[in-house]
Specification:
Pfam families: MraZ. By secondary structure, the chain is of the alpha+beta class. The chain is about 40% helix and about 25% strand. The chain has 6 helices and 8 strands; from the N terminus they run E-E-H-E-E-H-H-E-E-H-E-E-H-H. The strands form 2 sheets. A 6-stranded antiparallel beta sheet has the order 1-7-8-4-3-5.
Length: about 140
């Protein structure tokens, strides 16, 4: 399970260092894609395969399904870790997430998210005031 928050910076080659605590679980080959809220999602291969299977099972005749599947898969790339735990983030994903140099890498259970530091700060400032409301709504889902 991916947990925690880490600050990192991209190097001049667009590489990011994956936190040591995440490396074993993410594996040496993993998938990066456009995430929700303008971040980048990273998935271990086995988790990606589960999501891929679920998305393929959705009815492609629905416009919302087609739109989401296009969004999710068109931005996806299979990435490799080098021996130092680094991986090149594709330019299209960096541009999508507004990442220039400084990033926040967070563990979110079954995936890792990479945020520009600025967007993560803004997200947290805006979300803090609504955490209680969100928690109340989650009760309706049985959590």
């Amino acid at each position: 399970m991916f947990l925690g928050e880490y600050q990192h910076s991209l190097d001049e080659k667009g590489r990011i260092t994956i936190p040591a605590k995440f490396r074993e679980e993410i594996g040496y080959k993993f998938v990066a894609t456009k995430g929700l809220d303008n971040c980048i999602f990273l998935y271990p291969q086995d988790e990606w395969q589960l999501i891929e299977k679920k998305l393929r099972s959705l009815p492609f005749t629905r416009a919302d399904v087609r739109s989401f599947v296009r969004f999710f898969f068109s931005g996806a790339a299979e990435l490799d870790l080098d021996r130092q735990g680094r991986s090149v983030l594709p330019l299209n994903l960096r541009e999508y997430a507004g990442i220039d140099r400084d990033v926040i890498i967070i563990g979110v259970g079954t995936r890792v998210e990479i945020w520009s530091t600025e967007k993560w700060t803004d997200y947290n400032e805006n979300a803090q005031s609504s955490y209680e409301e969100i928690a109340e709504n989650l009760v309706d889902l049985g959590i």
